[in-house]
Amino acid sequence: MSGFGTLLYKELLRFWKVAFQTIAAPVLTTLLYLLIFSHVMQGRAPVYGEVPYAAFLVPGLVMMAVLQNAFANSSSSLIQSKVTGNIIFVLLPPLSYWDFFAAYVLASVVRGMAVGIGVLLVSLAFVGLSFAHPLWILAFALAGSAILGTLGLVAGIWAEKFDQVAAFQSFLIMPLTFLSGVFYSIHSLPAFWQGLSQFNPFFYMIDGFRYGFFGVSDINPAWSLTIALANLAVFAAITLALLKRGYKLRH
Amino acid sequence: MTPAIQIQQVYKRFGAVEALCGIDLEVAPGEFFGLLGPNGAGKTTLINILAGLARADRGSVRVLGHDVVTEYRDSRRALGVVPQELVFDPFFSVRETLRIQSGYFGLRHNDAWIDEIMHHLDLTGKADANMRSLSGGMKRRVLVAQALVHKPPVIVLDEPTAGVDVELRQGLWEFVRGLNRDGHTIVLTTHYLEEAEALCARIAMLKQGRVVALDTTSNLINRRESLYLKLRLAGAALPPALAARVRDSRDTAHTLRLRSYAEVEGVLAQVREAGAQIEELELLQPDLEDVFVQIMKEAKG
Ligand SMILES: Nc1ncnc2c1ncn2[C@@H]1O[C@H](COP(=O)(O)OP(=O)(O)OP(=O)(O)O)[C@@H](O)[C@H]1O
Ligand SMILES: [Mg+2]
């Protein structure tokens, strides 16, 4: 196997060995959100035409789980390696910064997709869903998990302690996901908040992802995907630059 | 011939601490080289720069001619490092750890060599044990094994015997000596100076980020008084002419510094002329520890 292949394999094995905690637990949490929110909100939030609220909610929750777990994977793996010191095992070999970047982000994508598929399958037991454009679903899930995997890498590189990663998650990732239209269509918001949501990259990921299910969205999905990919390109460029310099990894 | 390690004018500071101030060193291929110095001298910092774990503020470092920054792939392939800190990945077993480490170097079918290293380091029985369950000394052995998976021509061991029992220490040195005989270049740091004396052909001593001594081990040991003469006298005191040679005296026993064996006869003649009888006589070779202590005392840092 190549160095890149081995690092990817190691990262996959790392979360697979604790799959109960890295896959089963987030699936259960998301399911609880679904049951509670769909019960409380049924018939209250106006959504696209005749789509029932519970059906509207499921893609939002699936995408939220994909994003959060993709972030959690790379950030927790990296900070754990830094704090325990075993990061040197990947810093000593001749792995390039591209290998490093690609392996961590791909492992995050796999973890995000695994949790997303889990959530989706379990939700189908409770809620009927349509799959209008499966390729859009896939495209947004891949782009979203890659973006969050990259952000997780940034958080892991920057942080020196576990609580700094937790802060990154609580003060940036969580607000951005919760305010991105997971639980509502932004058309139900006052104009000010609607305007503000347009600056939230997560909004486009969730809106486009939802389009794949219902064929309806607030924004044209091609435009949303463009924005998501542009975000990915910017974050990836920043991360690669940090890795190349060895920022906080090679003192 | 391309030096195994070439360090030129390397500087490194951490905030107010000048960890390395202008290090120049060269290690030839096949050497067994010792890097000695008190705590905080900068040994680990230098090794980290060599391994690409840290970056020098100034200066250049090459491993087998490959610059560690611009040609990092080649330099890292040529280098195996046993780190000072006892680190491990708790998710994996010993064998998994070694297979993964091989994979990072692009080595696919490495099981025969992995088995051989595990055998030499007495790890075979623990091959499938989780890293978490190993004792400290066992974890240290795995670190040594990890550094060797890619058969690096240059091997750096940063205090590999700290906290390791006598048996492993001897086994480890036997193994490392064998690697050296097979042509691997070895660089070793240790605080056990008798180990360094027995193993290293050449030694650099560091103090506060500077090289304060660099020579073959035998030259270092012989460079001042080459030996000590220990005498116990009866009948008369030590003649005053010899006072300048005294290293220490206790009652009638005196240890005198000599520059060479040729001085033995003259000293004994002076003692006899003073009317003293020699009750006990011993010639002592100075050891590396004496030299180390003296050099560290002299070096202003
Ligand atoms: N990451 C760091 N941040 C700040 N200071 C550091 C760092 N690493 C090393 N130092 C400082 O640099 C100096 C050299 O440390 P180094 O670890 O290289 O010493 P050493 O010779 O390996 O010592 P020891 O025998 O204790 O292992 C010390 O003063 C140390 O405190
Ligand atoms: Mg050290």
Main beta sheet of chain B: 6 strands, mixed
Radius of gyration computed on alpha carbons of chain A? 18 Å
Largest sheet of chain A: none
What is the total tally of β strands of chain A?
Answer: 0
Which shape of chain B, going by the Cα principal axes? elongated
Strand percentage of chain B lies at 25-35%
Mean pLDDT of chain B: 92
- Residue windows where pLDDT falls under 50 for at least 5 positions of chain A: none
Strand content of chain A: under 5%
CATH class of the largest domain in chain B: Alpha Beta
Structural Rg of chain B: 24 Å
Estimate nothing, just give the exact number of structural domains of chain B: 3
Helix-strand category of chain B: alpha/beta
The helix-and-strand class of chain A reads mainly alpha
Task: Give the uncertain stretches of chain B in residue-range form.
Answer: none
Name the chain pair with the biggest interface and residue counts per chain: A-B, 28 and 33 residues
The protein's oligomeric status is heterodimer
Can you walk me through this structure?
The complex is a heterodimer of chains A (251) and B (301). Chain A has helices at residues 3-16, 19-41, 53-84, 88-91, 97-124, 134-158, 162-178, 191-197, 201-214, 221-245. Chain A is mostly helical. The model of chain A has no long low-confidence stretch (mean pLDDT 92). Chain B is of the alpha/beta class and 301 residues long. Chain B has three domains: 1-78 and 152-168 and 176-224 and 288-301, Rossmann fold; 87-151, no CATH class; 225-285. Chain B is built from ten helices and 14 strands. At the A-B interface, helix 1 and helix 4 of A face helix 2 and helix 3 of B. The complex binds adenosine-5'-triphosphate and magnesium ion. Residues 43-44, 84, 158 of chain B line the site of magnesium ion.
